[in-house]
Design goal:
Chain lengths: 788, 209
């Protein structure tokens, strides 16, 4: 790592995130001023608001930087979006003082909020509009913890960029807009005027970004004049040159390509606060032509390319995810804004996409060790083993990156959804694990759905025992159930009803965003918004998908398996007795709880008894959601991932029939319940492969490994084989947590939570909790030794 | 088996060859990818030759590679029955010194050495396991003699397995005294033995796998 990279990285890591009122103040000034009232349409107003912001915000070029631009006035200064969520003074205090993911809020910010921001936005934010429009049924289910709502504090925007900015400057995009305006059909198209307003707004947004870059060029020129150090002087002149050229024009070289993307990124995350953060996607593919040409022409060295990439990485880390409060903070408790850089995969023609930059990106990931951007590798059957091995080498370092994705599965998922083969091959995964057609799709995550909660509501005949409200429909008393199939029927009815409640809400929220907060800047970038003259949030994208993310697959499967096994097959527990035990949180029923935990078939052991129930649960959820129309000409689909919501969903859930006590987390992703898998990683892989991954838009599988298992070539090869096998079985994604000594110590204290933790003992592996304390200590010592 | 929390468990259960083959088949997809297969280990698999033979044949039918992890103490007849049905023998050579072998295992090593020679001559693939037990078989003389045996039989692969204390907990839970409560050999010691055997021309690895 070069010195400048080290310094900038250390600074980025050491600054604690804090709230800057800069954006909120400028946006409020604009909305309160003449510019807003003179705008001819809502899209124009939004575009002018962005322009006002980018014309007036502070320009930052820090010492040593080559890639420039910050969302706020400094690194880690985090903007707020009062038009979406207007934080109260109490919210600001919570942000400032909470233990997890705090944001410092100084006195001046609080004063500005009290005097300017809150008085202007109170009652006008989209968050308030959303909650105002939701039905009583929606509110009851939301408060019970049946689902969460992604769009109550963050805008729709789950989207990744394709290669268009590397071919077209903003000036070129403006020409496309002009063409689209020329072809508007005012004779036959009732929406022609709306399209024209949207297209004009896109033009304003394009100008806003050009102007923003030019302000950086000007600042760099001024700094160059004053600079004494001749090397830095030259760099500043180069920065000025770069910022004058991009984003107005297509980039000429590697450096300009990175800087162009970065301006676009800032544009997107300044316009609104879209979930998940915008992201360059297939970076190795996009940059490779520039890299190759620059190397051939001798204008760039490998070292310089790597340095630029590292500086680019730091830029992401400087922009923590916008502050979240309430349920949204619980479901996504992290500073990570989920920009997920893709490396590897295939090209548009289907050939292997791995190139020299794919490897370099992994080197950068390993050296930078930043929480942002996230990184992943796409592995297709054509991917060379050497690339898999390189990824495993980085995984082994134990900081959770890169995650590993199955390109062939992603392509099939996207094809199944009706995308073209080229769009599918040029796609990838973003956010956590979500498959998308990069640059052409709006794929909105709308909220998590608590699958085990549906069973609790079913067993309580439609009521939620925690909020004591009727949340579902009456499907009968559990004591009247005469077969397992009847229970499944009742569960399906409850689930269908509650999915309907969620989708009705989604369709309203979608219209609110389309009408009140269009995104002309983001629309510039996503095909085919310009051609259609439609906003990204209003069906402008080529593909428009809404997801509802199912959570707790392991917990619901094991709970139903326990009921089937004990109540209906073995008949050793009465359903009444079980329900009483659940209501009492197993208080005087510990014996029953132990039986449920230890004497019941569980998902994750390649045992069809439990795994077939998982298939049933999956199908019920899939059928409830898949294909339900949204308001943008697309439809709803499912994926299975949790971020951190499995903790929140566990908090709002009473004891479950799998032996889980009230308030404990539910299972995460598609992983088995913590500790329920006792037959090793191959059995987990086999069980999880029974999910029909190709009918989802993404699934998330976490696996824990002790570093000793990967200490030599053979161990690394084995991990490679495990990945390849899972992918051959159509698995979508897998990520590895390499455990450290701290986790092992926790496992010593709470063995019940870690019954599935495998460690390398000597020439063999064993479950950590089964080892003698003496041997456990030895392994802890060994693990510490490795400095993970 | 009445203990609901599994604090007291019966380890192991009676199974049929068919059940085992079904279980093995579940992992076949992993073997395809890794070139791996199934290892019959123990106890001592050669103690149940009929059962083992059935399983080996079942695996052959399914094109699943097999290894047999054995101490080599079996009748010539048993060895002859299975030798051509096994893809790889993991073969323990604990001590070349008969007196030591008798003292710690209760039997002579003659049959073991003889079987080893038969298998080698037969052309079976063999990977030798040499458990390094401090004060028992880690003498220069024993290391040299082990090397000589392997060379004379044309077997090159040997894994040195450092003695470990993982079994102590098992003795404790069975309420039995552990008679071999000694330390694991040092890394330096293991390295030394490895180098000696490499010098005579063997392929040596520390650890199994």
């Amino acid at each position: 790592m070069k010195n400048r990279v080290r310094k900038l990285r250390e600074r980025s890591v050491s600054i604690k995130p804090y709230i800057t009122p800069e954006r909120a103040v400028l946006i409020t000034e604009f909305y309160a001023g003449e510019g807003a009232s003179q705008a001819s349409s809502t899209p124009a107003k939004r575009a002018f608001a962005l322009k006002y912001l980018l014309e007036n915000k502070k320009i930052v070029i820090d010492d040593g930087e080559l890639i420039v631009g910050e969302r706020g006035p400094a690194p880690k200064a985090v903007s707020t979006y009062p038009e979406i969520c207007c934080h109260s003074l109490q919210d600001l205090e919570i942000l400032n003082s909470r233990k997890k993911t705090p944001f410092a809020v100084d006195k001046e910010t609080r004063r500005v909020y009290k005097d300017k921001i809150i008085p202007f936005w109170k009652g006008k934010s989209i968050r308030e509009m959303i909650f105002g429009q939701m039905s009583e049924e929606w509110n009851a289910a939301y408060e019970a913890g049946v689902f969460t709502e992604f769009l109550e504090q963050r805008a729709p925007g789950h989207t990744v960029l394709d290669d268009k900015i590397y071919r077209k400057g903003m000036v070129d995009l403006k020409k496309d807009i002009e063409k689209s305006i020329q072809s508007l059909d005012f004779l036959n198209d009732a929406e022609a005027l709306g399209r024209m307003e949207e297209l004009k707004a896109m033009e304003i947004a394009a100008d806003a970004l050009i102007c923003y870059a030019e302000r950086h060029a000007e600042k760099a020129r001024q700094m160059a004049k004053k600079e004494k150090n001749p090397t830095r002087k030259k760099e500043l002149k180069k920065i000025a040159d770069v910022c004058s050229h991009v984003p107005a024009n297509a980039p000429r070289d590697f450096w300009e390509a990175l800087q162009y993307y970065w301006f676009v990124h800032l544009g997107v995350i300044s316009e609104l606060n879209p979930w998940d953060s915008f992201n360059p996607g297939r970076l190795d593919q996009h940059l490779y032509p520039f890299y190759k040409r620059d190397l051939e022409q001798g204008t760039l060295t490998r070292e310089e390319a790597k340095e630029l990439l590292e500086l680019f990485w730091i830029k992401f880390n400087n922009q923590p995810a916008p502050p979240k409060v309430g349920v949204t903070a619980e479901e996504s408790s992290t500073y990570n804004d989920f920009a997920l850089i893709n490396a590897g995969g295939v090209k548009a023609d289907g050939s292997d996409g791995v190139n020299e930059l794919s490897y370099m990106i992994l080197d950068v990931v390993e050296e930078m060790r930043l929480i942002q951007p996230s990184s992943m590798v796409q592995i297709s059957k054509k991917t060379p083993d050497s690339f898999v091995k390189k990824a495993v080498e980085v995984i082994r370092e134990g900081f959770g990156q890169p995650s590993v994705f199955n390109t062939d599965a992603i392509i099939q998922e996207l094809l199944r959804q009706g995308k073209s083969i080229e769009d599918a091959r040029n796609g990838g995964a973003s956010g956590c694990v979500e498959a998308g057609a990069f640059g052409k799709e709006s794929y909105i995550l709308t909220g998590y759905f608590n699958l085990p909660k549906i069973l609790e509501i079913t067993l309580n005949n439609g009521s939620d025992p925690r909020t004591k409200r009727k949340v579902g429909i009456e499907t009968g008393n559990p004591s009247d159930l005469s077969s397992f199939d009847e229970l499944i029927n009742a569960y399906e009815k409850q689930l269908n009803y509650l999915v309907d409640v969620k989708i009705k809400g989604n369709n309203i929220i979608e219209r609110l965003y389309a009408e009140h907060l269009p995104t002309p800047f983001l629309s510039l970038l996503i095909s085919d918004c310009i051609q259609k003259g439609k906003d990204y949030s209003d069906g402008g994208a080529r593909y428009n998908t809404n997801y509802i993310q199912g959570v707790g697959l392991g917990t619901i499967t094991d709970s139903l398996a326990a009921i089937k096994y004990h109540v209906f097959d073995k008949k050793n527990v009465k359903i009444r007795e079980l329900c009483d035990a659940l209501h009492a949180d197993f208080d005087v029923h510990e014996n029953l709880r132990q039986r449920l935990l230890n004497k019941t078939p569980k998902y994750g052991n390649d045992d069809d008894y439990a795994d077939n129930i998982m298939r049933t649960v999956f199908n019920i959820y899939y059928c409830a959601v898949e294909g339900r129309p949204n308001t943008k000409g697309g439809c709803h689909r499912i994926n299975l991932l949790p971020t951190t919501v499995h903790i929140y969903f566990g908090k709002v859930l009473g004891a479950t029939p799998d032996g889980r006590k009230a308030g404990e987390p539910v299972s995460e992703g598609v992983s088995p319940v913590q500790g329920a898998d006792r037959k090793g990683p191959t059995a987990v892989i086999k069980s999880v492969s029974k999910i029909d991954h190709l009918r989802t838009g993404g699934t998330l599988l976490n696996q824990k490994f002790a570093p000793e298992l990967l200490k030599d070539e053979q161990g690394m090869d084995k991990l490679g084989h495990l990945i390849r096998t899972y992918f051959k079985l159509d698995g979508h994604h897998i990520q590895f947590n390499i455990i450290n000594a701290e986790i092992l110590r926790d496992a010593q204290r709470h063995p019940e939570k870690y019954t599935d933790l495998l460690v390398r003992v000597a020439g063999y592996s064993d479950y950590f909790v089964d080892l003698s304390p003496e041997l456990q200590n030895e392994i802890i010592k060994r693990t510490e030794h490795k400095s993970f | 088996m009445a203990c609901p929390s599994d604090a007291l468990v019966l380890v192991g259960r009676a199974v049929s060859a068919d059940e085992i083959l079904k279980e093995i088949q579940k992992d076949a997809t992993f073997f395809d990818e890794s070139g791996g297969g199934v290892t019959f280990s123990g106890g001592e698999p050669l103690m149940q030759p009929d059962f083992l033979e059935g399983l080996l044949e079942g695996c052959k039918d399914r094109n699943i590679r097999t290894a047999v992890d054995t101490c080599g103490y079996a009748s010539y007849k048993t060895i002859e029955r299975i030798r051509d049905k096994v893809d790889l023998f993991l073969y323990d050579i604990k001590s070349m010194d008969d007196w030591t072998h008798r003292k710690y295992t209760g039997v002579s090593n003659r049959l073991i050495v003889q079987n080893f020679k038969i298998l080698a001559k037969n052309g079976s693939s063999i990977s030798v396991r040499f458990p390094v037990i401090p004060g028992v078989n880690d003498t220069a003389k024993n290391v040299a003699r082990t090397g000589e045996l392997l060379l004379s039989c044309g077997v090159k692969q040997v894994c040195l397995l450092p003695f470990h204390r993982a079994g102590i907990e098992k003795y404790r839970s069975l309420d039995k005294p552990c008679k071999l409560d000694i330390r694991s050999p040092s890394d330096e010691k293991m390295q030394l033995i490895k180098e000696k055997l490499i010098k005579v021309g063997l392929d040596v690895r520390i650890g199994g796998g």
